[in-house]
């Protein structure tokens, strides 16, 4: 009988402890209001500051706040932290697509197409001279194609 009573008390205490822990976790995860419409937990805000720095984090929060206010989509974004990360990722993708292609002239470290043509002619001329030298060293034993 005492064992049953002890077990019942033990179960109730465990239930109470779980409720207290749940309440404490809820408090920790409580979101704070930033500007008029953006809500973040302390942890989310700290992560953003670590990732973007303080000024850029404030800029992202401001952009999201303006967007929510101007579009009236107060419930569209359920997680403002994830929305900011998503917008940041999209911006990076757009910027990487905008990066200019490397032209052959740039690959050679040249600034114009004419410079590239001159360099390639010089290389071809040097190549042709190398072939003539090689041909001479073989004393004409290799049949030559007509130009």
What does this 3D model show about the protein?
Strands 1-2 form a two-stranded antiparallel sheet. The protein has helices at residues 2-28, 42-52, 54-71, 80-98, 104-107, 113-137, and strands at residues 32-34, 38-40. It is mainly α. It is built from six helices and two strands, in the order αββααααα. The chain folds into two domains: 28-98, no CATH class; 104-137, no CATH class.
What is this entry, summarized?
The protein has 147 residues and is mostly helical. It has helices at 2-28, 42-52, 54-71, 80-98, 104-107, 113-137, and strands at residues 32-34, 38-40. The chain is elongated, with a radius of gyration of 35 Å.
Set out the fold topology.
Layout: H1 2-28, E1 32-34, E2 38-40, H2 42-52, H3 54-71, H4 80-98, H5 104-107, H6 113-137
Antiparallel strand pairs: 1-2
